[in-house]
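REVIEWER CHECKLIST
Item 1: Sequence provided? yes
Item 2: Single chain? yes
Item 3: Sequence as submitted:
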Amino acid sequence: MERINPPELGKPSGFSHAVAAEGRFVFLAGQTALDPEGRIVGDGVVEQFEHALGNLLTALRAAGGEPADLCSLTVYIVDMDDYKAHARDIGRVWKRLAGADYPAMAGIGVRRLWDVEALVEVQGFAVVNR
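Item 4: Structure as written out by the authors:
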């Protein structure tokens, strides 16, 4: 996998501008902070992001991948101002769960998610070479 960050686009922070990879594509469904009983857990955006990312990484590992295999990730965000206010904490969660490499990423503001209690949803794809 090659993370491509041309200097003409400026230094990315918390994402890569482009990712090139060869291998088995794994498309990961959007994940929220659902627990195994189907309830949204976590009182705030940081806790919900941690649980949603953990769910996504669980699905990725079940497909034979690991966090470094993520090529692209989209974060759907109900309250963009709240998300941005907690960006450093969310970044620490990312580094703890997924490491120092970042996929190509987008953050999209939405009015609401499937579960009204959900504050964030993460969806992505990975390329697994194992």
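Item 5: Key structural point noted by reviewer: The radius of gyration is 14 Å.
Item 6: Recommendation: ____
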